[in-house]
Amino acid sequence: MKKIEVLGTGCKKCVNTAEQIEAVADELGIEVEVEKVTDPAAIMGYKVMSTPAVAIDGTLVHSGSVPERDKIETMLRA
Question: Global pTM?
């Protein structure tokens, strides 16, 4: 199971990112645990300057926008 953290303030884009990741993972049959991280200290720990951002298993893989579906698939399959 992949642990996915969606980093951001809880804005609509951050919520949308988490929902899209869950939906794509479900379609691909990949088990994920999605956690929304809103703590500024935790976000800065990843050196994120713009949100939403996505970390998978502790590694930052995307930041600054809602990822496109193709990018989500690539992130989940990696």
Answer: 0.94
Give catalytic status of residue 14 as yes or no.
yes
For the question of residue 11 being annotated catalytic, the response is yes
Per-residue pLDDT tens digits of the chain, which is 78 residues long: 999 999 999 899 999 999 999 999 999 999 999 999 999 999 999 999 999 999 999 999 999 999 999 999 999 999
Residue 33's beta-bridge partner residues?
A: 3
Beta carbons of 7 and 37 less than 8 angstroms apart: yes
Select which of 11, 23, 28, 42 is catalytic: 11
Four-way CATH pick for 2-77: 3.30.200.20, 3.40.50.2300, 3.40.30.10, 1.10.1750.10: 3.40.30.10
Residue 70 per-residue DSSP state: H
